[in-house]
Design goal:
It contains 11 helices and 10 strands. The chain is an alpha/beta fold. It has an 8-stranded parallel beta barrel with strand order 1-2-3-4-5-7-9-10, surrounded by 10 helices. A two-stranded parallel sheet has the order 6-8. α9 links the parallel β9 and β10.
Amino acid sequence: MLVGFRELLEERRARGAAAGAFTCYTLTTAVGVLRAAESESAPVLLLVSEASYTAPEGRLLLAALRAVAERASAPACVQLDHVADLATIARALADGVDAVMADGSRQPYEANAALVRAACELAREGAGVEAELGHIEGGEDVAAATAAGALTDPAEAARCVEETGADCIAVSIGNVHGHYAAPPALDWARLERIRELVDVPLSLHGASGLPDDDLRRAVAAGICKVNVNTELRARLFAELERRVPETAPGLRLLELESALADAVAEVAAEKLRLLAG
């Protein structure tokens, strides 16, 4: 069932848990994520990357994700992830996305805040808006070894919420997108200070490379949303490598699609159990 961004995250925060947010490049991925959500009785966010949405068929993908989320028995929300272009954000909101991440984190604070404020004005009382303070390094769509970027300033994060009305803040505390260039060392004291100053849900990106204990600790420290991308794609490619030789004779496409969805569901379910609080 489709639920609102704020509603979903506030429910997790009240439970001391976090929602899993999974990047879905295909309908098969979304089906796997929703199978996991239903089996674990947990809410999820289906994320659409900017590259996916702005591709020629991107609006169809968004519509498909909304359709399967609406029919799922678990609460689900569809979010456009990491977009710095206001026109793209406006188009996605018009297309019915439930939330957007207005990401101006590569720009100075004032420009970032202006983007988030404008996105909030476009969303009004309907869709949710997530902002990013500091900068989470790494690519969304191509995995590479990456070092941590600029860390979130707690006071600046609080200022951003007050000045923009953002519903959620993505924190940079040593986490990265893609593969970690060195063993991750998250700044727990920084996260604690952000939690003290910021009274909206916090999200943690780059969870694919984090140890399980770090994820549990992050949720206990107040993280309400955890993004997973690279780990899903790695599992999909591994399953393709394993299954294609078996299913190619006879062109057994339905069998292959089912196996891929099951593989995604397995990874997503493992994450959701870690985030249950």
